[in-house]
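For reproducibility, we list the full input for the S-adenosylmethionine complex.
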Amino acid sequence: MDWVKGFYSRTGSWWGRAESRGTERDQRRVALLHEYAGPGPHRVLELGAGYGTTAAATAAAGHDVTAVEITDRVDFATADTYTLVRDDFYRVRLPGRFDVVTYWNGFGVGSDEDQRVLLRRIAGEWLRPGGVALIDICNPFVWARWDGDEEHRLPRPEDGYEYELFERTTFDPETCTAYDTWWEAGRPDDKITQVLRCYTPADLDLLLAGTGLRRSAIAGGGRALLDDNHEYLAVLTPTVA
Ligand SMILES: C[S@@+](CC[C@H](N)C(=O)[O-])C[C@H]1O[C@@H](n2cnc3c(N)ncnc32)[C@H](O)[C@@H]1O
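The corresponding predicted structure, in tokenized form, follows.
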């Protein structure tokens, strides 16, 4: 997991100006939170909050939000309507329990045991009895199709994208792991890669065994897993009420 800080900090320096503005995606996430947890207001813990746009949208919908982010992506966050904690969610200590724990777009870093450590923290330390965890899971059916793809992204300064970048995606079908590699034009020797373990829903159920969480629903599941969405939302609830 030693690549995490470098990768998300560097990509944040490329994209932060463009992507630290709230979008329709944040509103969709808040709608999913309401769909699976009810309207609240809730005490919400958001893991891996990036630039904080979803945390801000969740707070604007009336929830009491604590957002944890390990990198300097937090420097792009502008809202002061939620509690922002710059820390590692494997180490951070947080007071009290939460009605909802979210991890939007980011789960799957490290080994299966690393995921289980995080899932056990969600179940045992953060989620209140009867609470719900909403976690985006990388969809292996789509990442596998992207194996070998290469993209050339031209700068769009008017939208805040100032860098000319290349992206190459590969997928290891034995370990069900996606490798997403980026580099700046003219700097092919300076590549950075995010490594994402993907889980089918069946594999996720195996991962969850013994963590104190079980899968109670999926948004974007069923045959939609064979469509183009690179992630699906797992709705997890504590096994002990
Ligand atoms: C793929 S990004 C997604 C960011 C945000 N959730 C979004 O959807 O825009 C994953 C984020 O999780 C953060 N992250 C990864 N591991 C973390 C850790 N151990 N503790 C806190 N944040 C972490 C990364 O720095 C990064 O900002």
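The pocket of S-adenosylmethionine is lined by residues 4, 8, 48-50, 68-71, 73, 88-90, 104-106, 109 (CB under 6 Å). The domain at 4-140+200-238 is CATH 3.40.50.150 (Rossmann fold). Both points were considered when choosing residues for closer inspection.
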